[in-house]
Design brief:
One of its GO terms (biological process) is proteolysis. By secondary structure, the chain is of the alpha/beta class. It has 47 helices and 37 strands. Helix 16 crosses helix 20 and helix 17 packs antiparallel against helix 18.
């Protein structure tokens, strides 16, 4: 045993001696990034990078060796290792099978066991079985149950030595391959000096893992794992190529699951988008290994019906996992949802189930491991349980109309603000242009936009033009510090809401912040989603699967921008036309004219006559429909109609309360254990305080110094290996980028689209363009490798035109041009050729972590690979504008700009981070985890808001949550809150902000929704008709007015008040006093209890006008009889100032009002007075009033109460509500409301 151990050690020493122990100090360089840090956040970000760079400068490197001279020695060492492995394997067969091989060749094993093995009744020993014994020594009993404990112990030691030799054999094989390839000499050096620093006896499962996977655990990997195992709450930055997924995570799983001293179960938190990929790898690497590590998942959503049986099943699964020494792999939202379910059950007073489910989730039983912790615990993340009944979003129409009006100003007017430019769509002139926002003065933007709103207001709020309170209103819209209360008593409620909607978009900077976002990179429409509103994107063309915007107005603006960019589908356009047919004529005419005017410049003159009026549209005519779709699908006015009719009314909703879960709830580990990895340390300042980034800057440990120096190393490498910074020509970024690639295809081998310049163009289309180019030129590239979103796998488009999955292609990625689209700029490993050159794109607001992760796709960038930086000219101009020194240029200026973006990202997250933290600390009880959801415009924008120091944000949050929960600021209560306050006070100094929640996202889970399609049949109760009574109709001709008649007549206003459900509110209208009704006209059914008869009142038709100009409305039966009498009188030559008429003809100024009139004095031709006409039209629900009747209508409605809902009540009662929008009546009401406001 001692001889074999010494031989193994000798082989290790021989390999190590191939190198050199002579070290030399690396050449020091000056820190290339200039910083005039004025704030603590800037100082923290720059200082971390500076310290990392200094550590990199202080590195000590081994002197180079002649690699080729090591080949003979390596071959000799490899041969010795091979011989020793064979001897050990022979020994194992003898020990486990009882086989002896004497020189005579006679087997001394019992004949019965020999026969049993020949019959396969007893197992034979293979290398796999040896691995199992190394992992579990008791498995040796399967082959030889007579082995003593001492014998098994000795056997186990030999098997571990054998495994060490197998791993060493793999190492020698790799060293020989690298030594024979000059381009891999750096890899040779790295592998040569990578020696084992851990005990195989303490961690035999790691040794088995090495042997099975053909890897070697490097010293830095062990150091990271060892630190995490013994450091609860620690986060370690794992940089590109450190083997997080392939090595470190499996090491942690094996360490925690196989440690019999621990009762906790390892629980790995993986981003939901990566969950399937991770599970597949772990199933192969751990589940299918000889160790047979069982992997369990626990998906959960709110709509899971929790019962005692469900909880018992969960307990059984957990106990089974613990018994099997397995591990759980979960998505963070699934775990958080289950924890919130505990609180929801408690709120529903289901305390027993709540307590039992809480025990399942007890933190003390779990070893929580977070992968991509900077993303999982990102400050923007929160999960919401909506509580209560869904309600329409308050004032939703005011919100979307205001947003559309401001967008209309932007795409039709040149507002002349530096930093805000537009790029029109050449092929579709009617389409909304693309907005590009750089460095814009927010104050100037508010001022300009407000001025344009008042100069040329949109139709729905044209009342603001020339208003006497214009100065106050402009202040309210543009200045967040202005108090909207000064207008509350001066304007109608609708007008106040319109101003508040504009105020939110301008004074609170919602519009400009939304314009800064990039469509299909930061936001867009998620295909197949139930809601058709815009959602946050995690990368180019990668929508978040569950998130939505918390702020309704942000969702409105981004939805408008999304549809303006993508246009309507043919189906959506059809729905729009069908909906238009159900609108009133005025609305159809006005709206379709707006569509037509916007697209007119592109409509062919020969086509125009067939589509210039909406009445000419035939929805069954497919040819005409295709023509209309071509002209209108990108028309903003058409899109507005679609959104306002289908999307916003249905999808803009709110719930009265919400149960909230935040990253702080995920990071909690009271009594438990939690560790994590981050791809960067950029956001460690705004991670939950339960987790802390491990940054031992004062360490002297060479391994930790090397880990901490990674950012500095990347910084230095990028500067040295960037060949050139290229500026794209003006135009479409994707087209200009493709042109750049094709022009430089001979020198490029990959595209890393970190800046998402390819957004809107599929990788397959880009690959086809490149493939066509290389197939017609003598290029060495054999094809294009790209990720196909439809197939969800990597594809290779070969030079021949054949497109196959990467694993089926005969070409490796190093032989092709590789496209890393924006979502694949992180976590993807492609083996590019050693001298590969990649074009790396730069996008808006790019931060350091994203940039370095993208550059890290070039695994050998520190050797012979290099970069070509590509960006738009506008970004370059922005960088030059921020370059205070005016001396930085090229890559250095770019890096300074990226660091500034990183600082801004931390600043933006600090108030959200503190709010989440204080909410977590004050919401330990379920009832305190519920927040009220107030989404009305007054709650959002109804108070003056001033810019406040960012350092005060936590104090304000503490005050609010302490008042909300009734918490007293005791020493114990402040124990965990004070560190939050201290960090905000320290980091927030020097920053002023208005918190607008523009970027706040949430994942909302609703209660189980059961959609039931119901057909409601309304059965109207049977009514008995009123029996009309005849009277002396000839009496009419002897009376000068209606009071002289012998029958009861009712004043028109009184008749309406007594019979309509709105009752006394009728008095708000100045009804004519000389307009009356007969009892027969008033009553149509028998009603004994005096209840309203809205649905049974007659429509005014026949009437008689007396010489006194009084008018009496008649029933149809009365009208028929009186008409005959009038005709008889007229034929007899009787002449007087009476006439009988029909309301429909008398009220239309465009018709011959003598038609169907029986006038006993035709020479006089006395018309029906305008006030009577307007009164009867209003009662009939008419909405069309010519200009001659406009002032009369204003006179009728001049009492302020009549302007609002009473008028709409008449229109709706006659089921003519569709005609109200954009009608003459609506315009009259708006004008009158303004006049009444001006009087006040």
């Amino acid at each position: 045993m001692a001889f074999i151990e010494s031989t193994v050690r000798q082989h290790y020493d021989d390999i190590e001696n191939l190198g050199t122990k002579q070290m030399s100090q690396a050449e020091a360089e000056d820190f290339p990034i200039h910083s005039e840090a004025k704030t603590q956040i800037e100082n923290e970000v720059y200082q971390d990078l500076h310290q990392s760079f200094e550590l990199y400068n202080e590195r000590v490197e081994r002197n180079p060796i002649d690699v080729k001279t090591t080949i003979p020695k390596l071959e000799t060492i490899t041969k010795g290792i091979d011989d020793l492995i064979k001897k050990l394997e022979t020994y194992f067969k003898r020990a486990l099978l009882g086989i002896d091989y004497p020189t005579s060749g006679v087997c001394n094993m019992s004949l019965s066991n020999c026969y049993r093995r020949l019959c396969n009744n007893l197992p034979s020993v293979t290398k796999r079985e040896l691995l199992k014994i190394a992992y579990n020594i008791d498995f040796a009993n399967t082959f030889n149950p007579l082995l003593s404990q001492n014998a098994k112990g000795l056997l186990h030691k030999y098997i571990l030595l054998w495994l060490e030799l197998c791993v060493l054999q793999d190492k020698c094989t790799l060293l020989l391959l690298c030594a024979s390839d000059e381009q891999r000499h750096n890899e040779f050096t790295k592998e040569l000096y990578s020696n084992r620093s851990w005990s195989v006896r303490d961690h035999p499962y790691w040794l088995v893992f090495e042997a099975e996977q053909g890897i070697r655990i490097r010293p830095e990997q062990y150091e990271i794992v060892n630190h995490l195992i013994h450091s609860n709450g620690s986060i370690v930055q794992l940089n590109c190529g450190l083997g997080k997924t392939r090595v470190i995570l499996p090491m942690l799983i094996l360490s925690f699951s196989q440690n019999t001293k621990l009762d906790r179960i390892p629980r790995i938190h993986i981003l939901n988008t990566l969950l399937t990929e991770f599970c597949e790898y772990f199933e192969i690497a751990l589940g299918a290994s000889v160790m047979n590590i069982k992997l369990y998942t626990m998906p959960f959503r709110r709509d899971v019906e929790i019962s005692g049986q469900i909880i018992e099943s969960l307990e059984n699964i957990i106990h089974r996992c613990q018994y099997d020494r397995g591990c759980f792999i979960v998505a963070p939202e699934h775990r958080l949802s289950m924890e919130m379910k505990v609180k929801e059950l408690a709120l529903e007073n289901n305390l027993d189930l709540s307590e039992r489910l809480s025990n399942v989730l007890n933190l003390s039983r779990w070893q929580n491991i977070f992968d991509e912790v900077d993303e999982i615990l990102h400050y923007r993340y929160q999960l919401i349980y909506s509580i209560g009944s869904v309600e329409p979003l308050p004032q939703m129409k005011h919100r979307w109309l205001a947003a559309e009006a401001l967008m209309h100003i932007l795409y039709t007017r040149d507002i002349g603000i530096d930093g805000l430019s537009v790029r029109s769509q050449d092929l579709h002139k009617e389409a909304c242009p693309f907005f590009v926002v750089e460095e814009v003065s927010y104050d100037l933007f508010r001022e300009k936009m407000t001025d344009l709103v008042f100069t040329n207001p949109p139709l729905f709020c044209d009342w603001i033009k020339g208003h006497s309170r214009k100065a106050d209103m402009m202040q309210v819209i543009s200045n967040p510090a202005a108090d909207p209360a000064i207008l509350e008593d001066k304007l109608s409620e609708d007008h106040v809401y319109q101003l508040l909607a504009f105020r939110g978009l301008l004074a609170f900077d919602l519009l400009i912040n939304c314009l800064k976002k990039r469509y299909r990179v930061d936001f867009g429409i998620r295909q197949g989603n139930k809601k058709q509103l815009a959602v946050p994107f995690r990368g180019a063309d990668t929508p978040s699967e569950r998130s939505e915007y918390s702020h309704p107005d942000v969702a409105v603006i981004l939805s408008i921008i999304s549809y303006y960019n993508r246009g309507l589908s043919l189906e959506q356009f059809k729905y729009s036309l069908e909906a238009m047919t159900k609108k009133g004529k005025s609305f159809q005419q006005n709206t379709y004219d707006c569509w037509l005017q916007r697209s007119l410049s592109r409509i062919h003159p020969e086509t125009l006559p067939g589509i210039n009026k909406f009445d000419k549209i035939d929805l069954t005519n497919k040819v005409q429909l295709d023509i209309l779709y071509n002209y209108f699908r990108l028309n903003p006015e058409t899109i507005n109609f679609w959104l306002n009719t289908f999307v916003f009314p249905r999808d803009l909703d709110q719930y009265p309360h919400r149960l909230v879960g935040t990253p702080w709830h995920l990071a909690a580990h009271d009594g438990g254990f939690a560790i994590g990895f981050s791809g960067t340390n950029d956001l460690h300042l705004v991670l939950p305080l339960q987790m802390k980034q491990h940054l031992p800057w004062n360490t002297t440990d060479p391994i930790w110094c090397d880990i901490l120096a990674t950012n500095g190393k990347m910084l230095d490498t990028i500067i040295r290996k960037t060949k050139k910074v290229n500026l794209l020509d003006d135009g479409s970024p994707s087209e200009m980028l493709l042109q750049f690639i094709l022009e430089n295809i001979d020198s490029l081998h990959a595209l890393i689209d970190c800046g998402a310049l390819l957004v809107g163009v599929s990788c397959e289309d880009i690959a086809l363009s490149i493939q066509e180019h290389i197939s017609t030129n003598s290029n060495k590239l054999q094809g294009v490798t790209f990720y196909d979103d439809q197939r969800r796998e990597w594809m290779v488009l070969e030079k021949s035109g054949r497109c196959v999955p990467k694993f089926q292609s005969s070409f490796e990625e190093k032989d092709t041009f590789v496209i890393f689209d924006e979502p694949r700029c992180r976590g993807v490993d492609m083996k590019l050729r050693p001298d590969a050159v990649a074009a790396l794109t730069i996008g808006q607001d790019l931060t350091k972590d994203k940039f370095m992760q993208a550059a890290g796709r070039m695994r050998k960038l520190h050797d012979s690979q290099s970069l070509e930086i590509v960006l738009e000219k506008r970004l370059h101009n922005e960088m030059k504008g921020q370059n205070v020194r005016k001396v930085s240029e090229g890559i250095t200026m770019l890096l300074e700009w990226i660091i500034q973006n990183t600082v801004h990202s931390v600043v933006k997250g600090l108030p959200i981070w503190s709010e989440h933290g204080i909410f977590y600390e004050t919401s330990k009880k379920a009832v305190h985890s519920v927040l009220d959801d107030k989404s009305d415009l007054r709650s959002f924008y109804g108070k003056p808001v001033k810019k406040d120091d960012l350092s005060n944000s936590a104090s304000l949050s503490k005050k609010y949550h302490f008042e909300r929960t009734g918490k007293v600021a005791t020493r114990k209560a402040l124990l965990n809150i004070n560190p939050i306050l201290d960090r905000c006070e320290k980091l927030g100094e020097g920053y002023n902000t208005i918190i607008t929640a523009t970027d706040e996202e949430c994942e909302r889970e609703l209660q189980r929704e059961v959609e039931v399609e119901e057909e409601e049949e309304v059965e109207i109760s049977k009514q008995h008709p009123f029996s009309e009574k005849d009277w002396d109709y000839m009496k009419i001709f002897s009376c000068n007015d209606v009071s002289e008649l012998s029958i009861e007549v009712v004043p028109y206003g009184k008749m309406l008040e007594e019979n309509l459900s709105i009752g006394s509110e009728i008095r708000a209208i100045k009804w004519p006093t000389n307009l009356h009704c007969t009892t027969n006209f008033t009553k149509t059914i028998l009603v004994n209890d005096g209840s309203p008869v809205d649905n049974y009142l007659r429509i005014p038709d026949c009437f008689v006008q007396f010489p006194s100009n009084e008018v009496l409305l008649l029933s149809d039966r009365e009208g028929a009889k009186i008409c005959d009498i009038f005709l008889d009188q007229k034929n007899s030559g009787f002449s007087s100032n009476y006439f009988f008429g029909h309301f429909a003809y008398e009220s239309d100024p465009n018709s011959n009002n003598t038609m169907l009139r029986c006038d006993l004095n035709p020479v006089a031709n006395i018309p029906l007075s305008s006030d009577k006409v307007c009164s009867m039209k209003l009662f009939n629900g008419e909405t069309n009033y010519p200009s001659s009747q406009k002032e009369t209508m204003k006179g009728l409605l001049s009492i302020k109460k009549a302007v609002g809902g009473i008028v709409e009540a008449f229109v709706n009662a006659r089921e003519k509500g569709k005609n109200m929008e954009l009608s003459c009546l609506e315009k009259i009401c708006n004008e009158l409301a303004l006049e009444l406001e001006e009087q006040d």
